Amino acid sequence: QDTWLVHGVLEKWEGKTTEVYSTIPSDDTENPTLLGTIPYMGETEANRALEAAGKAFDKGKGLWPTMKVADRVACMEKFVKQMEKKRDEVVKYLMWEIGKSLPDSQKEFDRTVEYIYDTIEDYKDLDRDSANFKKRDGIYAHIRRGPLGIVLCLGPYNYPLNETFALLIPALIMGNTAIFKPAKHGVLLISPLLEAFKSSFPKGVVNIIYGRGREVAAPIMRSGRVDVLALIGNSSSAVALQDQHPYKNRLRLVLGLEAKNPAIVLPDADLDLTIDECIAGTLSFNGQRCTALKLVYVHEDIAEEFNRRLAERVDALKYGNPWEDGVKLTPLPEPGKPDYIKELITDAKKKGAKILNKKGGKTTFNYIYPAVLYPVTKEMRVYEEEQFGPVVPVIPFKEIDEPINDIADSNYGQQVSLFGKDIRTLAPLIDTLVNLVCRVNLNSSCQRGPDVFPFTGRKDSAVGTLSVHDALRSFSIRTFVASKDT
Ligand code: G3H
């Protein structure tokens, strides 16, 4: 990999490079597998990307922001058709770079393609919408949606393709120009798509930067020329970048941040189904999902049986390389993650929790087996911190007000999973919970998709809403032409 995309042009890179190593443990532990090298970018390249994006937007006069709907659709269709041909390459990178299992990597790719096609259709509908015409007091208004300007997109390592594109694609189709920074882990998978970017969009519309946030993203923000900061990741990065912008009031934010989604297991819950969903919810992609279940509240009447069965099932999950059949637990891309999870476990044990499963907390290469911790209490770090990794904290409760009050007091407010059968108990609980979070999952684990559904959160979990429909609105502004009725 010796080329990169800046200025919308694929260029030969002659500067310093950064080596990208695989997350998959190598047989030779001294020498991890080198996957490729990429340009080591700094402020100079970041400014070039900014110049290119600014020139392509050209204060709203550029080819891209003024392009007709049908032509912009044609560019996006050209892009997605080329992207589809790169499925196998991108999927391979997802497995080697971030350790995502083969089925999950394929799902991430297919879901992204579907997202692009759905976005194209929704964008066409925006233009067709008859509500775009209004008449009042003799004035006709033709309401449109226009671009905002330059968008800086930053994606996370857990969905380096899908979530980066969930920001980038709607931003582009609405006529904005973009600079995007792929995640630290999951950067090479963009390389099979460079040619598609280059040949589908006008020069300067898409600009890719890579490097340390403070060296590449911060200078772009300091310029004051960014109109939208679109980030999926942690709030400290979002706040740090926001703070760099000299005219914060002009900056639109589209942010998907942390969450601490709980499951509440009521005494009449179907335990087979609940345990299946709790395992998928806490441990899919090793718990590295903002939507993962990060606390499990279980009613004390059923806690013993629930815990025993949950612990057995967790120990039966297969660890291995992403392409192996039936693998559920895979290597972790963040080098410090096993130590961090170990710290959470040690802290919880010191404060009275036990590890319920035999394999819990054991390490293999860069992996730590999920520990089912019980009973977890508010004094423990694992109660407060977003673990974003393989550990399952279980909290007993007697009265339903206990979890409800905890959710109300939490700094986060994304989703909840509620497990139980009696609708007379569930209905009022749902009515309360929807005022505390943004999605209540009944007898199922939390998740973002399908991507046509609104995805957001209260408090520190999100700013703005993502979904095919909402994102088009997040990355645009309503304008109109008014004319007198004559
Ligand atoms: O990391 C947060 C993701 O948006 C989770 O998405 O629920 O589809 O895995 P998911």
UniProtKB/TrEMBL annotation:
Q: Which InterPro entries match?
A: Ald_DH/histidinol_DH (IPR016161), Ald_DH_C (IPR016163), Ald_DH_CS_CYS (IPR016160), Ald_DH_N (IPR016162), Aldehyde_DH_dom (IPR015590), Aldehyde_DH_Superfamily (IPR050740)
Record-annotated Aldehyde dehydrogenase domain positions: 31-476
Q: Which PROSITE patterns match?
A: ALDEHYDE_DEHYDR_CYS
Q: Does the keyword Oxidoreductase apply?
A: yes
Q: Which residues cross the membrane?
A: none
Do the record's keywords include Membrane?
Answer: no
Alphabetical keyword list:
Oxidoreductase
> Which GO terms of the molecular function aspect are on file?
oxidoreductase activity, acting on the aldehyde or oxo group of donors, NAD or NADP as acceptor
**Which family does the record assign?**
Belongs to the aldehyde dehydrogenase family.
This protein is called what? NADP-dependent glyceraldehyde-3-phosphate dehydrogenase
Q: Which organism is it from?
A: Robertkochia marina
